[in-house]
Amino acid sequence: VQLQASGGGVVETGDSLRLSCATSGRAFGRTISNNGMGWFRQAPGKGREFVAGISWNGGSTTYSDSVKGRFTISRDRSKNTVHLQMDSLKPEDTAVYYCAAARGSFAGTDIATYNYWGQGTLVTVSS
Question: Is pLDDT larger for residue 68 or for residue 34?
Answer without folding.
Answer: 68
